[in-house]
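Can anyone check this?
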Amino acid sequence: MSSFDVIIVGLGAMGSAAAFELARRGIRVLGLDAHAPPHTLGSTHGRTRIIREAYFEDPAYVPLLRRAYERWAELEALAGVRLLVPTGGLMLGPADGTLIRGARASAETHGIAHEMLDAAEVRRRWPVLAPRDDMAALLEHRAGVLLPEECVRAHLHLAGAHGADLRTGVRVADWSASPAGVTVTMTDGTRHEGARLILAAGPWLPDLLDLPLGLEVERQLFHWFAPLGDPVRFDAAHCPITLWEPEAGRYFAALPDLGDGVKIGIHHEGERAHPDRARREAAADDEGAVRPLLARYLPDANGRLREARVCLYTNTPDHHFLLDRHPAQPNVILASPCSGHGFKFASAIGEVLADFATDGASRHDLRLFEVERLVAGTAASRQSSRIAGEGDR
């Protein structure tokens, strides 16, 4: 039996950031992971991830996102490695669509510098992009890409340097909590005790929860394509990150070529999966889903497929984050099923989790991410299903 101030289960994006933040505060931290982050089995991989500020999902994300920018810059300085590549960012879709309206609302609410462009101006500035004539675009200049594997390595390295005990290749079987503390039991029977527990296990989190929150794991694909013609046109100096809404409520992203090809990913629309049983190999139908998008909107990126990788989203029912204390066990912290758009926030979420573990609260307004909405939503869904079932009798 070993005892710590805080035990963290999961050392990916959020867990590694929390381990670093807690360890540098002098907190005795134990970090546990069944694998060896950064790895390709969960959500935190893929060489590049978008960071953007005019957040179409909700203006409430912007203050936390601004803190994340500050913390990524600090981490770069401390680790001595480049973690963020600025590219600028374009949101493209119908002017009255969810993407453009939401991005513009965040930009105007928080005074984010931006430009509104029509499709002709987009094509003039970036000839490799081919928006439809009915599309508008919002350009924000601070957007770019993060290097996720390097970010996780930096957080883990600095956490260890500050004394965190980080153990990989070890799997959690169960946990329990009481006002006196928490106990984590491993599959080999080893037990660890602590004052606080952070559950940040990504797609493995649903297996560890004793709450019906409606979380679902979704299989997603990233594809990298060799550009046609001069690849310089797609590098980070010449091509921004782009987020597209080609149809109402459907999205895909394209990231510049950093040497591996142009990266394309459809946002959602994947099959349900379990992290230990997910289809890990890309199939022809996966590629077939993105080829028409390339052909229509980025035709000069529609070259040879260089690589494809499976990624896992852990989705809440409303696709907003979960950052809160357990409703029945306040010394247990539930961390960030981010529904496929959370990595950019990891540096700030690590600070949020550390604040929960040490102070019991966060300085940020996290009402959008509270657990009670999911508990209530699941209960309402079950009640609705029960009534509907009775009506069928």
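Reply from J.R.: I decoded it. Residues 85-143+216-311 form a domain with the D-Amino Acid Oxidase; Chain A, domain 2 fold (CATH 3.30.9.10).
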